[in-house]
Design brief:
The structure holds two protein chains of two kinds. Chain A is mostly beta strands. In chain A, 0% of the residues lie in helices and 40% in strands. In chain A, strands 12, 13, 14, 17, 20, 21, 23 and 24 form an eight-stranded antiparallel sheet that branches. A five-stranded antiparallel sheet of chain A has the order 15-16-22-18-19, with no helix packed on it. Classes of the chains: A mainly beta, B mainly alpha.
């Protein structure tokens, strides 16, 4: 991109000088002239030079000579410009700093810094239309409120993450959460020595795709609320004890119901609840067992109306 | 030490499901095992530190987590998960459960077609981390099966959930396979198919409209 130079030449009487010679020299040189022109009847001159660099302007009118030097350094109380251009340290490009189409006088306050810093914080309300990327080392510290009205915070896992409605309801559609049930009666699965894994073959929902083959697999480390409920049928008067176990990779949480020998209720539903610490990729299943029967005669109830089911969610 | 010295075989479709959620399945599984080891090491230390403080025979504790864990693992009163279970089973009322269900799921799952072997030369794990895992987990190989199957399932479900509507809306798609394998293969060969890591990368580059 060419560098543009232009100006007006007037004599000491304020009269425009016509025909003055204007030369463009490299900074602090007198030869060669990189470009030249003459002033017109209005005293106006302009030079467009295609090579980047630092230049002096020398205006000659007869014996009179005036030089506008690149190295000039001045202080002023106030400068008003239509276009402010700042050159990069390598002197190869320039920043053009231009105001938007404001409709009244505005004030741009630069932030207070205590040392060298890069301009980042603006006191003006901003509308960002592109993506803002924060590196892993970056953080956002807010001392005010984050106000999201009917907006979605998109996570890494898909097109929706955290959604806040206009009234403030929060949905977290990628949060691990499931409800599964046993769809049919499982006949003669326990009673004597068998401690089977409870089958949950129907998903009501599995938000993050964490449940399969009667097993929940934790996607991330955390505390998971796990609540199985099992309803049994076919218990006879011979039964003694009932166990329901939430078997996680790290621990087995056992809810036991023990009564006097041969005193188990013959049809009951059992519910357990635990907030289990699970590492990423840990699994959780449910096993049950009834003891005291002569053989495996106890059934696990199941059907479309959930009475044997398993639900869970990531609490934190 | 090395577990799975000859690797873990999965089907090509299962591998595709893994690729939907992780860019490098072996990297992911290796990191998951290491993360498990470190988590259990730290849990072991947190659980045992109060006991060590009250043990008059312990006069100092290592300032290194691995060394501290090794000290705990070497104690005569320390028991692995399996040892704890064996002791509990001395109670005739204690439920006898099969804790190796993940290996059973791996061995009995339906699979077909070409296969892919992960970690053909075995999975290397730090010995201290391995021992710390066994403080809580009865069988590391079974845990690895569970982690692998869980992530394959997660990839499968996310793939189908996202791209089933795309298939239904595509006028050039007349029929959709009635098998999961067929569905995955159909999705994966689409020009507009992107794995989740690819979608994240494109989103960060600003090329996807939300």
């Amino acid at each position: 991109m060419a560098i543009e130079f232009a100006g007006f030449v007037y004599n000491s009487l304020g009269v425009a000088v016509n025909g003055a010679t204007v030369n463009l020299y490299d900074r602090n040189t007198t030869t060669p002239s990189r470009a030249n022109t003459t002033t017109n009847t209005n005293g106006f001159w302009s030079i467009s030079h295609g090579t980047q660099g630092r230049f002096d302007i020398e205006i000659t009118n007869g014996a009179a000579k005036r030089r506008i030097k690149y190295d000039d350094i001045i202080q002023m109380e106030e400068v008003e410009v239509a276009l402010l251009a700042m050159r990069n340290p390598a002197n190869t490009f320039k920043y053009d700093i231009t105001p938007a189409a404001i409709v009244a006088d505005r004030v741009l306050n630069l932030p207070l810094i205590t040392g060298a810093d890069t301009l980042m914080v603006l006191g003006l309300a901003q509308t960002v239309t592109g993506a803002i990327t924060l590196s892993a080392a970056a953080s956002i510290i807010m001392t005010g409120a984050l106000d999201l009205v009917a907006q979605a915070l998109v996570g890494n896992g898909g097109s929706t993450g955290i959604t806040i409605s206009a009234n403030g309801e929060v949905n977290m559609v990628a949060q691990p959460m499931f409800l599964v049930l046993n769809s049919t009666v499982r006949l003669n699965v326990t009673g004597n020595t068998a401690q089977p894994t409870v089958i949950f073959d129907t998903e009501i929902y599995d938000q993050n795709g964490d449940f399969a083959s009667n097993t929940f697999t934790a996607p991330v480390a955390g505390r998971y609320l796990l609540t199985p409920s099992v309803r049994l049928l076919g218990i006879t008067s011979a039964a003694d004890d009932f166990f329901m176990n939430v078997v996680t990779s790290n621990r087995t949480y056992s809810a036991a119901f023990r009564v006097a020998a041969n005193a188990m209720p013959q049809s009951e539903a059992w519910l357990a609840s635990v907030i289990a610490d699970m590492d990423a990729s840990d699994t959780a299943t449910v096993t049950i067992g009834v003891t005291g029967e002569a053989s495996e005669v106890v059934d696990i109830r199941g059907g479309a109306a959930p009475d044997t089911f398993f639900s869970g969610k990531l609490e934190g | 030490m090395i577990v799975f010295p000859t690797g873990i075989e999965i089907s090509q479709v299962e591998y595709q499901c893994l690729l939907h959620v992780v860019a490098d399945p072996e990297q992911w599984l290796g990191d998951a095992i290491k993360e498990k080891g470190l988590a259990r090491r730290d849990a072991l230390i947190a659980e045992w530190r109060p006991k060590l403080f009250t043990d008059v025979a312990v006069t100092s504790l290592p300032a290194d987590s691995d060394e501290l864990a090794s000290l705990i693992l070497a104690r005569s009163d320390y028991m692995t998960r399996n040892e704890q279970e064996a002791k509990a089973r001395l109670d005739p009322k204690y439920p006898v459960m099969d804790l190796s269900s993940n290996q059973h799921r791996y061995e009995t799952r339906e699979k077909s077609g070409k296969t892919q072997t992960l970690f053909a030369s075995g999975i290397e794990i730090d010995q201290v981390q391995y021992d710390c895992i066994l403080a809580y987990v009865d069988n590391l190989e079974d845990w690895i099966y569970g982690a692998l199957l869980g992530h394959i399932n997660r990839g499968l479900k996310k793939m189908v959930q996202q791209y089933n509507p795309v298939l239904m809306a595509d006028p050039e798609v007349v029929t959709i396979p009635a098998t999961q394998d067929g569905m995955i293969e159909l999705i994966a060969k689409r020009n507009d198919y992107r794995t989740l890591p690819q979608q994240v990368a494109e989103r960060l580059a600003g090329r996807i409209d939300k």
